[in-house]
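Q: Given only this backbone (460 positions), what sequence would you predict?
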């Protein structure tokens, strides 16, 4: 192994994914000398990160990167369809007052978006991109001052900068240098492609309320539809056929007939891949010279597709707080430390509602035999069927256009009380004693579903 000459920059970014590319362009545009490092610059092939909500589209436009969702055979998305048994309810994105047009998201192949973002970052002023694997952080006592990296030719490099942003994803190797928290894996997504599948609502994402947990479907190109089957607990073995049998015997019978045929065909022809779905509450950056962003720092269940929206908004906020007007030099660790505390709390204005909605909604949709959660799930579906504000508020939160946690709390408990009302009406007078007990058990279940996630947001 040979060691090449030392290179110095204002900012090193580890990971050229969603966060890394946008941060490189944002800070490079601000006049910082940025080094963006990525282990593999070939097009990634992932099964998540393929639907950008309207709030994320707005953030991408703010970053000057809106052209990156063009020319990748992406599909406009105008809302969701939720299917429960034989019933379907449409949940359209809201009409934007400023334009009087319906809000729009976009779905696409994740790798195609990444390659457009990488191209934009590499063409940006003051940004250098290198394909190397970062193996360790260089420290001066407790402060991070650079990284040690290795090329595919086994060459070792040392890069130095007063500030390093680590955004190496859900499987981050450097998270342990930042926090003792680890992702709490709730389930796994099994993903594959359906070819030329006609969904009930074109240009909409679809959530199927199956047992034991939900299924997502959305078109990601002209001829391809992504299906993501949530599998709670331990993932059945792929190699011995257990997973394929689970999809055939447990999942397929619950799908609408028009989708089921394509689903069964794809199980036999497509490669089945999986990704863990977990929860990692955000932590305060306290390591001098280092910032952790993206899924390395904060993870929520991808059910609601809010991850990229949070990521883009994080970059916008961080660049504002660390702009040259506020922090002329990244060597000023005291100012940076103060600004990172501000970042930690200000980001809650937009990430709290997205994080808590994703986790609490997943718990409702994956009731998995819990009678009280099943009452809440039925109530949630019936609440959507009411239309009007019962759709506008929840979908505003889902889309990232409404960022008020109190709006989430209001609608969540409105669902809980509506669910109790529906079940009480169904029980009738003969079941009044059951309804009386249910009032307390369902309300308690609602509280323990949402409150722990809300509390995690106000901690360090």
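A: Predicted residues:
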């Amino acid at each position: 192994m040979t060691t090449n000459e030392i290179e110095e920059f204002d900012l090193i970014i580890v990971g050229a994914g969603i966060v890394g590319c946008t941060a490189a362009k944002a800070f490079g545009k601000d006049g910082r000398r940025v080094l963006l490092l990525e282990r593999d610059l070939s097009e990634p092939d992932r099964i998540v990160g393929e639907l950008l909500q309207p709030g994320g589209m707005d953030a991408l436009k703010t970053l000057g990167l809106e052209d990156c969702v063009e020319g990748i055979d992406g599909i406009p998305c105008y809302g969701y369809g939720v299917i429960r048994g034989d019933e379907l309810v449409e949940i359209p994105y809201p009409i934007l007052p400023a334009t009087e047009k319906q809000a729009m998201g976009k779905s696409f192949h994740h790798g195609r978006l990444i390659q457009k973002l990488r191209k934009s970052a590499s063409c940006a002023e003051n940004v250098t991109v290198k394909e190397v694997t970062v193996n360790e952080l260089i420290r001066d006592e407790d402060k991070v001052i650079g990284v040690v990296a290795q090329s595919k030719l086994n060459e070792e490099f040392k890069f130095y900068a007063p500030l390093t942003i680590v955004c190496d994803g859900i499987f981050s190797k450097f998270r342990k240098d930042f926090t003792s928290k680890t992702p709490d894996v709730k389930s796994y997504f099994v993903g594959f492609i359906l070819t030329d599948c006609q969904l009930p609502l074109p240009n909409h994402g679809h959530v199927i309320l199956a047992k034991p947990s939900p299924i997502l479907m959305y078109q990601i190109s002209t001829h391809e539809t992504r299906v993501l089957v949530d599998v709670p607990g331990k993932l059945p073995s792929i190699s011995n056929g257990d997973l394929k049998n689970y999809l055939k015997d447990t999942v397929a019978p619950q799908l609408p007939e028009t989708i089921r045929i394509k689903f069964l065909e794809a199980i036999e022809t497509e490669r089945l891949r999986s990704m863990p779905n977990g929860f990692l509450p955000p932590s305060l950056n306290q390591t001098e010279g280092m910032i952790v962003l993206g899924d390395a720092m904060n993870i929520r269940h991808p059910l609601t597709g809010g991850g990229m929206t949070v990521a883009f908004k994080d970059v916008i906020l961080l660049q504002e707080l660390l702009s040259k007007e506020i922090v002329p030099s990244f060597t000023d660790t005291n100012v940076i430390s103060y600004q990172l505390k501000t970042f930690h709390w200000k980001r809650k204005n937009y990430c709290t509602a997205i994080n808590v909605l994703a986790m609490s909604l997943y718990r409702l949709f994956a009731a998995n035999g819990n009678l009280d959660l099943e009452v809440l799930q039925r109530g949630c579906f019936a609440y959507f069927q009411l239309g009007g504000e019962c759709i506008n508020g929840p979908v505003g939160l889902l889309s990232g256009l409404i960022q008020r946690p109190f709006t989430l709390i209001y609608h969540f408990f409105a669902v809980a009380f509506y669910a109790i009302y529906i079940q009480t009406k169904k029980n009738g007078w003969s079941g009044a004693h059951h309804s009386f007990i249910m009032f307390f058990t369902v309300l308690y279940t609602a509280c323990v579903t949402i409150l722990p996630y809300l509390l995690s947001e106000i901690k360090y």
